[in-house]
Amino acid sequence: MTIDHDGAVPVYRQLANLLRAQIASGELPPGRAIPAESRLMQIHDLGRDSVRKAVAILREEGLVVAVQGRGTFVKPQEQAGE
Predict the structure, then answer these.
(1) What integer best gives the mean pLDDT of the chain?
(2) pLDDT of 16-33, one tens digit each?
(3) How far apart, in Å, are the Cα atoms of 21 and each of 25, 68, 69, 70?
(4) Domain housing 70
(5) Which among 79, 82, 75, 78 has a CA at the least distance from the CA of 19?
(6) Cα separation, 48 vs 62, whole angstroms
(7) Using CA atoms, how far apart are residues 81 and 79, in angstroms rounded to an integer?
(8) Does any domain span residue 2?
(9) Tens-digit pLDDT profile for residues 64-80
(10) In Å, what is the CA distance from 32 to each residue of 18, 27, 61, 72?
């Protein structure tokens, strides 16, 4: 899945959907860090604000947790949604 920069769905929502799908499929397994902001910006040609909004959505959904100084990690299944 790629980000459609000209589509009707905001790019940050598209990125959140993409990361959510990678988590659901196991491509980003529990305990694994998601790519860094700078990497997501580079891969998807997005600005920092869009990447931060996408990650914030996943945090609100309980799919990832930010660890200061380490990164953002996929929550283990038993913790997801808590």
Answers:
(1) 94
(2) 999 999 999 999 999 999
(3) 6, 24, 26, 23
(4) 11-74
(5) 75
(6) 21
(7) 6
(8) no
(9) 999 999 999 999 876 45
(10) 16, 10, 17, 8
Rg (C-alpha) for the chain, rounded Å, is 12
The enclosing domain of 23 has a CATH number of: 1.10.10.10
Single-letter code of the amino acid located at 27:
E
Tell the residue number behind the tokens 């860090």, with chain if given. Answer: 33
Total number of domains constituting the chain? 1
Which tops the pLDDT comparison, 35 or 79? 35
Look up residue 48 and give its two tokens.
């920092």
Instruction: List the Cα angle 53/49/5 in 5-degree steps.
Output: 90
pLDDT of residue 77: 72
